[in-house]
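@channel anyone free to eyeball this complex?
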Amino acid sequence: MSARLLLAIVFVLLALPARAHKPSDSYLTLVTDGMAIDAQWDIALRDLDFAIGLDTNGDAEITWGELRARHEEIAAYALPRLAISTEGRACPATLTQHLVDDHTDGAYAVLRFRAECGGPFRVLHLRYGLFFDLDPQHKGLLRLEYQGKSTTAIFGTEKASQEFSLAAPSRLTQFIDYVGEGVWHIWIGFDHILFLVALLLPAVAYRFRQEWRPVDAFRPAFWNVFGIVTAFTVAHSITLTLATLGVVNLPSRLVESVIAASVVIAALNNLYPIFSERRWMMAFAFGLVHGFGFASVLADLGLPSDALVLALVGFNAGVELGQLAIVAAFLPLAYALRRTGLYRHLLLTGGSLLIALLAGIWLAERAFDLALLPS
Amino acid sequence: MNSCLFAALLALSFLMPCAGAAPYIPASDAQVLERLPFKPNDPVARELAELRAAVRRDPRNLDAAVALAKRYYGLVGEDGDPRYLGYAQAALAPWWDMPSPPAEVQVLRASIRQFRHDFDGAVDDLTQVLEREPRHARALALRAIIHIVQARYGLARYDCQALQQAGNSLVGLGCEAMVDGLTGRAGPAYATLQAAVSGQAGLASEEMLWLQVRLAELAQRQGRDDLAESHFKQALAQGIPDTFMLAAYADLLLDKKRHAEVASLLKDKSRSDVLLLRLVFAERALALPTAKDREAELAARYEASRMRGETVHQQEEARFALQVRNDAKTALMLAQENWKAQREPRDARIFLEAAIAAKDPAAAQPVLQWMDESRIEDASLSNLARQLKGVRK
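replying in thread with the prediction:
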């Protein structure tokens, strides 16, 4: 509270910044539980002044004192110009609080009110008529929230009455959407797939005197893969969470470059032992960076502020599912082929070389902002 | 909508820290929340009050309504505040929805419509007026400019010539010179217009300003930037703070990397989105401490305009996306959308620049086609077109 106050005082001392020019808008937020509506309505002081006059002393400045003195008139002017009703029933509004807020083009009176509809409802009818007689280009920008889902709408002279049905998508549908996005991202994110493949290629073999030998049994190969995938998962989940919650942020060019570098190193490790058999450590270290990459995709999808955790968990689960699908397809095949020359020479050596080369080009592209491959 | 949500939305799109705060109760009664453009005793305010009173006495009096609407419309140009467009429209309410209102109302309706980028609606209105009154000078001038903006040069030339015959020969000449400048005849058009302007004494400063900006554009098209600058200076000397002129002059200075001059030219002009954009470019180049805040402010204004469902900012937003956000993809998308409505050299330029940055030469095909068809000569556009051809996809 005191920081706020201090900030407010500093602003007064610095004088008001030049305000932008913007057409007249009001911002209306309605939050409903299907029974009653809690609302906040931000109306520009300039518009209210034009409509009912706020500058009582005629000095071209509106002070809090002048505004406070007109609170009753403001409520009496504004509230009847928004008609809220449900299936045939009006929802009378009662003002609860007068506040002030700043938008890009100046100060706004904030009216908080509660509308009671006298029973549960599924359809909400709004008729908006503020300022349309004075400024036909005025718009009312609505955000309607029901069960964590928000709908937006714009009211204008040609669209003054609108109806909204309260059908929130279930949390489950929302969750499944994010899972799908996660799977899809792994599927189209070649750099993540190649990183995993480069780490998994040698999983059905072991190094013996600078030579790859096939493993004798499925069990050690499985645990090897399990360790790598778990380390990668734990690591990228950590950074995906931290970045999505806004705790840490890295420049995307750096992240994308290091992801490409991680693929190069993972592939080269199959040709010259760098991390040798402790590939799970590499999976963990670079997994941290891949997590930032996932986070930027998730941010691009748009995050619901009210369902952040749901989105995060869903997306992450999708990424893991996509990953498991790749492993499930890869491991049995590689295990079956592990004794053949096809696997040892062509796939393991040739494949690693190819991956290193491709990722090397990505690295150059991302680090130096070039375009070497056709997109 | 509360401002923190606003900021959260912004933060998502641009990874900005949450700058907005929640609604609050001011600390004291004396705290000034808002400054109004006028005191009730200012001459402009009194003039407006009288005009408004006349309309209130008799809302269906055409002359009173048109006088008030014209005054408000004039304020939009002087001050850049789009609220006055709505006030002008309100004054014309009894006639606004008529299919063919009185000519004065219809020309004002066209003016207001083109401001909101409803160019088709505006041209329809003007065409109707000109069918009834073929020599209506303001209708001719406005329709010519819209044709120019939308690259219909034949039709534009026709209106400019009609305008010369309708009585305003110098503005008509400037109008035709604009068309010439866009169709490969910038040199001779400059010479003709320059001779006509210097032979004319006692021009009104609004007219002089408009003509000087046309001369500056023609000089720029020929690559004669010093000459262009001298015309911008003469335009400035008219003492009218015209937003379009200041923006064009600032762009010239930005091209010459004279950022400090842009910063001082525009430092008090940040109310206008158009000028704030130029100020952001200059202050970023100079690494001034205020640059970050201005950048955030401009981003917030674009976001507010998007929430309103408006597209009038696309050309400028594309420049912002490309140069400030380094987001070539978004810039290209905005430039493409903008090209559907506006096709002037500056619209072409950001389109080409965005296509080059996005390494998508095919996207800019419409611009190359426009350059071929119009036969425009413009050093910087030709340069960009060459660069574009060198881009490999």
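from a first look: Chain A has two domains: 22-165, 171-368.
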